[in-house]
Amino acid sequence: MNRRMHPFRPLLLATLALTAVGCSTTQTNTPSPVAKPVAAPTGPVSISNRAMLLFDDAVKSFDAQKKAKAFDYPSLERKFKAALEADQNLAEAEYNLGVIAERMGKADEAKARYAAALTKKPSLRQASDNLAIMKQNGGDVAGAVALYQDVLTRYPDDAGSRARLAEIYRQNNDHDKAMELSRAALMRDPMNTNALKVMIRSYLDRKQLAMAKLVALRAVKLDGTDPELHQAVGLILLKEGDTEGARLQFKSALEAKADYVPAHVELAQLALNAEDFPGAEEHLRRILQADGKNAAAHVDLGIALKGQGQYDKAMQEYDEAEKLNPDLGATYLNRGIILHKVKDAPERAVELYKKYVALAGGEVALHAEAPVFGLLREAESIVQAKREASAAEAQAKQMEALQAQQQAAMKAEEAKQKGQTPPPPGGATPVSGTGTAPQATPASATGTQQPAATPAGGAQTAPAQKNAAPVDSDEPTDDLL
Predict the structure, then answer these.
(1) Which residue of 83, 215, 227, 323 pairs with 257 in a disulfide if CB–CB is 3.0 to 4.6 A?
(2) pLDDT-derived band of residue 434, with 50, 70 and 90 as boundaries?
(3) pTM of the predicted model, to two decimals?
């Protein structure tokens, strides 16, 4: 089996990786970290001591879990709820419950918590930021812009809102405005890596790799624990052709955050390209742990399993991919390859290849030299050869039967000319029924005299001899004629 049959991978994983540096569809605008006021919340409303003690205990638990890189969100949720129940005016506890809800996938609850926190404390701009980010990630760009501008109206020196507005302008291809807002954010906060990420993406959009790399390396020096920054450097190195350097950056991203999916995506693709199928399988399974409904990842996992000779498991992955996304052409192409090359089912493979071509937009949309056409021609030729072989075998059997009939007819004609009963087909001795006596059965090899044949009349006769005479059993037999 040729191990190089693995280039037919879906483009969805590649698309995810290219947008990994940041855009609203990949959720790179993440919520601000859990709020940790340096001192007790201030404002016209005083907070009870019990609520503050409970709040401090919850924040300490968060810090410990962050250090251990193992969050127990239900436990944190209970602690912040206890602080809020002790004093409903504690806006920071309300906000932190919103962050926890968002991290647990409870978007509606998170929005409600952020809104409640702003009602209790309008100056809590982190809540405005996260609401705006959720609106932006949900496609409500106008709503997000309104919230960011509201923050800037109340806090003219806020760098974070400027950086996020810059990203919106970049996504709308207004790179001049995006760069202007990014620089304004950095003037107010030189450590703002979000502004640097916008600049990196803007330079990449305009294919200015040298400038993108310069800004990315600067950003990594500022915050080496941000996986997005290592990912950005890795993508730039890939575009420059430095595969090994890119691999190291993607691994650094995973060291910063073990479940950072875009880095696993890139490392899985690099492993598949290098035919490191066990390595690819490891990264793909991590991707599917984070998103089990990623049809493209199931297809790539099938390719990795096929590369290890696990064809049935590969077919199971293709089946799962088809359930999740029946319009993903790579599913049918890769399934067809196994049926064609391994399972000796070229007829089914032809159907799958044609379905792939149809999903790709037909022959006009695909390049004439696309590998699928070579596979299709090869499978069709095998199908045709099988048909011809089957037809030839059937014809040979017919000829054999015809020859047997002719031979039987010739033997029957010879027997008729000699006045004998024609032998039945197959050469069996016929049962006497025409009055002609059959030949006597000769003596056995042991010398024992066999009984004479019985004629049609039923009377037993002795075998004919030249000098027919009764044989006296008491006298020796004279062998002379």
Answers:
(1) 227
(2) very low
(3) 0.67
Token pair 């006769």 is at which residue?
461
C-beta of residue 375 within 8 angstroms of C-beta of residue 384: no
Which residue, 123, 143, 170, sits at the end of a domain?
123
182 assigned to some structural domain:
no
CA distance 151 to 126: 10
Instruction: Confirm whether 209 is domain-assigned.
Output: no
Domain that holds residue 401: 345-409
Domain final position from 355, 389, 409: 409
Residues 6+ away with beta carbon under 8 Å from 72 = 65
pLDDT in tens, 224-281: 999 999 999 999 999 999 999 999 999 999 999 999 999 999 999 999 999 999 999 9
- DSSP collapsed to 3 states, the chain: CCCCCCCCCCCHHHHHHHCCCCCHHHCCCCCCCCCCCCCCCCCCCCCCHHHHHHHHHHHHHHHHHHHHCCCCHHHHHHHHHHHHHHCCCCHHHHHHHHHHHHHCCCHHHHHHHHHHHHHHCCCCHHHHHHHHHHHHHCCCHHHHHHHHHHHHHHCCCCHHHHHHHHHHHHHCCCHHHHHHHHHHHHHHCCCCHHHHHHHHHHHHHCCCHHHHHHHHHHHHHHCCCCHHHHHHHHHHHHHHCCHHHHHHHHHHHHHHCCCCHHHHHHHHHHHHHCCCHHHHHHHHHHHHHHCCCCHHHHHHHHHHHHHCCCHHHHHHHHHHHHHHCCCCHHHHHHHHHHHHHCCCCHHHHHHHHHHHHHHCCCCCCCCCCCHHHHHHHHHHHHHHHHHHHHHHHHHHHHHHHHHHHHHHHHHHHHHHHCCCCCCCCCCCCCCCCCCCCCCCCCCCCCCCCCCCCCCCCCCCCCCCCCCCCCCCCCCCCCCCC
Q: How many domains does the chain have?
A: 2
Across the range 274-289, mean pLDDT stands at: 97
Q: Does residue 21 form part of some domain?
A: no
CATH code of the domain in which 108 resides: 1.25.40.10
Distance CA 120, CA 91 (A): 6
